[in-house]
Every structure is written in C-alpha cells, then in structure tokens.
Amino acid sequence: MPPSQLILGEYSRTLDERHRLSIPSEMAELLVADDGLCVLAKQRPGALSLWSRTRWGNQIDAAVEIVNCKLATHRLENRIPQLQEFGRLLSTRHSEVSLAGRSRLVIPESFRGFLGVEPGGDVVLVGASVCIELWNPAQWLQYQHEKMDNFDTLLDLLVS
C-alpha cells in the first residue's frame, strides 16, 4: 500500500456461522498482496487489526531485530521476565490469514475470544489509516467516547 493512501471508512458486518466476515473490497484491495495474504493481529480486547504483510513485517521485524541485538549483547540480562512476556505476546499476537473469494476473512479460533463476537453478531470495521480494525461494537463505542474529544489535537499534531 502506498504510504500516501489512507484506509478510511466505517462499516457494520455480521459474523457468519463459520466465523467469516466480509471485508469491503475498497478496503481489502489496499492490504492484500497478489497471493491474497495479509496479517491479522490482536490489537486490544474487543479489537483485531488487519494489515498488509509488508507493513506488518517491516514494523515487527525492526522491533525484533532491536531485541535480538540487545539479547546478543547481554543488555537484557536483568529483564528476563519482560523478555518472556514479550515472546509470549509476540508468539500469539498475529497470524497470517487469507482473504477468500469476495474478500471474506475467516477469524482464526485463537482470535475469536479476543474479539468477543459470536456467530450472528455484528462487527464494526474501521479504516485506521494504515490497517483495518475489526471491533466488537460495544468496545468500539467505548473507544469513541474516550477518544473523540482528542480529534482536533491529534489532527493538529499530524498536520503541523
């Protein structure tokens, strides 16, 4: 995805009985590589995010490389519990997924409880500029209530 192209929009979708979700094609085409693969990540309780493999890989690979360098130079000797926590979370945080025909995403079993939406339930899809977020509607409403007042400040920060 070109860095100048923001992914925007808000859509309501229903999770079907097979835990499939239809992603709007105008959003999906900004993320999916020619092989149909992208990355699904646990964002926060009640929210998942869908990323292009390239953007996700660049972001995670850079962070892992820094941690590996610190580990190799013994700079994390006193941080073993934090290193273990990082490893646990990194190991379970993301998964490569494919968007099948009609841009349908199957939510992997290990992500379903984190999203907290049962089959037949609604999911809110939100364009988050660089990824697509999948929200439990109650969590999305709560997030908007907490953050909407900060919009003007955030806009000023990003455009200045």
Could you characterize the architecture of this molecule?
The protein is an alpha+beta fold and 160 residues long. It has a domain at 10-55 and 95-159: Transcriptional regulator MraZ domain (Chemotaxis protein chec, 3-Layer(aba) Sandwich). It contains 6 helices and 8 strands, in the order E-E-H-E-E-H-H-E-E-H-E-E-H-H. It has helices spanning 25-28, 53-72, 80-93, 109-115, 137-147, 151-159, and strands at 10-14, 20-22, 37-44, 47-51, 94-100, 104-106, 122-127, 132-135. An 8-stranded antiparallel sheet has the order 1-7-8-4-3-5-6-2. Strand 7 (122-127) and strand 8 (132-135) form a beta hairpin.
**Could you report the average pLDDT, rounded to the nearest whole number?**
91
Helix content: 40-55%
CATH topology group of one domain: Chemotaxis protein chec
- Spatially, the strands of the biggest sheet line up as 1-7-8-4-3-5-6-2
